[in-house]
Amino acid sequence: MASDLEKYVNKTVSVITADGRIIVGQLKGFDQTINLILDESHERVFSTTQGMEQVVLGLYIIRGDNVAVVGEIDDGIDGALDFAAIKAEPLNIVTH
Predict the structure, then answer these.
(1) CA–CA distance, 92 with 72 (Å, rounded to integer)
(2) Could you report the per-residue pLDDT of 44-68, keeping only the tens digit for each?
(3) Residue 60 and residue 55: Cα distance in Å, rounded?
(4) What residues have CB less than 8 Å from 3, skipping those under 6 apart?
(5) Element holding 30 (H helix, E strand)
(6) pTM to 2 decimals?
(7) What is the tens place of the pLDDT at every residue in 30-45?
């Protein structure tokens, strides 16, 4: 999987962690254990009662054993979304 991440370096990615968090940022680097370095990152916190909240994290490191999914974000589509109107259940913890 580590070699597959090379194509995402310097691109905006969304990372879903094993504890159900969604973190978006620019992938700056990674290692063989999938530890990720994200810059200009923020966490997207969803709620069923109010719109999505974005918590600014800045430069952020995610341990590889906590990474569940990594995917590239289309900046055009992402920028057009009205996050204040999106209501959703928070993700559950990933169980094995």
Answers:
(1) 22
(2) 998 888 888 999 999 999 999 999 9
(3) 12
(4) none
(5) strand 22-30
(6) 0.89
(7) 999 999 999 999 999 9
